[in-house]
Design a protein that fits this description.
Blueprint lengths: L5 H15 L24 E3 L5 E3 L5 H11 L4 E8 L2 E7 L3 E7 L9 E2 L2 H6 L4 H10 L12 E2 L12 H8 L2 H7 L3 E2 L1 H4 L12 H9 L14 H6 L16 H11 L1 H10 L2 H29 L11 H21 L5 H19 L26 H7 L11 H4 L3 H4 L3 H14 L3 H13 L12 H4 L26
Helix pairs in contact: 1-2, 2-4, 8-10, 10-11, 12-13, 12-14, 13-14, 14-18, 18-19
Length: 484
Amino acid sequence: MPPVTRAEAERRAQAMRDVEHDDSTSEEETGEGTSTRAGSLMETTVEGQSGIMYDNRELSPSSWEQAVLGIDGDFEVDLCRENEGYYAFQVVEKAGFAVRIGSSRSDYKTPACTCETFQETKTACRHIYWLLDQLTPFYPNETESTSLPLNKDGSVFPGSTTFERITKYGLEKRAEQLEWPFIRRSETETTGSSDDSSMSRKDQVRDILSIFDDEGAMPEDYRPDMYADIPEELNDPKDIYVRQDLEATIFRLSVFDDIFFQRLRKILGPDLCASVYFQKVRLEARKKLTELDALIKNGPSDETEYEPNVNWCANALRTSVARIQSSLHARAQLGRSARTDAVKALVYILQEVCNRNKNVYEEIDWEREAPPDEEETDQNLYQSLIGNPPSEMRGHFVIDVLWGLLDVARAFLPKFEELVKMIESNGAPPECIAQWERLLIQLGGGPSGSGGTSAGKRAGAGDDRGGQKRVAVGRERGGKKRMK
């Protein structure tokens, strides 16, 4: 017998209503689909979107109509997850409905749905039947029947429940095949980590919301008040609302509501957030360098509480590099695009530092009195970070992070070869140059990236500074600083 389409099922149901309206039990329309009156429809089959045939031998006419509407329906699963004793599925039509399938000891020993049809009839609705058809192909048919008998509770295999089938064969793999967002039970029991990330749920939400900050604040600097004021546990759903603060309300809702968080994460995934983060780090580094340049050009300003000098800028750039490294470690497995943005930020910082191998105070046109203990590294950004850094920092600036980005850094090989030439020309400790040479080899370049010049040739005998080119330390004009 050929399969029954949705239109055919509706036509037959209407015919039965017209003929038997005097002695049938009515079922009112709910607005969620075609209503039916109790009656007897001829035994038939319907083919699911999965290709599996189902028959109605165990169903009433009204249940059969729900089955046809569901199996032939246009739905999707927005989220599925494990819970203690049951599985939850967020089935989306024009509105979202939650379907729960549980064990015999749970509140959902027969599949349940939040739609109005199920709430009125307590029998499987179209959402349950549709979900059943999506799951059934993954679970072997242990009967010899050419069609599977549907039951009014939504089960299909004699002798076992849908929950038992899901538990036996697993939900995560099927969710992956169908591209359904999936949450493991361990993730539903905590508001902590998800996305295989070591970032807490609070950190992930703050990371997401900081994308929209007009001032480009880093996530760790974004709305500290909102982050600190959130309760550890939600005892009353009303606690989600923060008076006159939409951002804080959305923040709390995302932290405590798994479904809302997953929907938000589906739109603003880890890769997008990471890319924005690395771009912000790059902009932050540029801002610090611009402040240093402004100081050199105009002198100190009474409008700032700090002096953005060489040491200040060097520490700021170390912080920027450390932020990239810690972010790579904390985030989930990132795609090439996000990791490439990390490399771009590192290349920008390294390029700017290599271009600044000079005493920044040599050509100033404002008066400055140099501190008596001022050293070369206090006047030269390159020397402070690469050429002659503190002993514990030698050879580690930028390159430590690049070792974890080799797969995407290879695309920047010509730029790194150029930068290594600059480092060799400017001068750096032998171990620093040796590290860069090893990195170039890993990226597919030559031993030094400069046609064979090695660290050993660059480093002068007995010179622990690697034969680096020294920059003259000019003596600034004496007297008090003159403000312009």
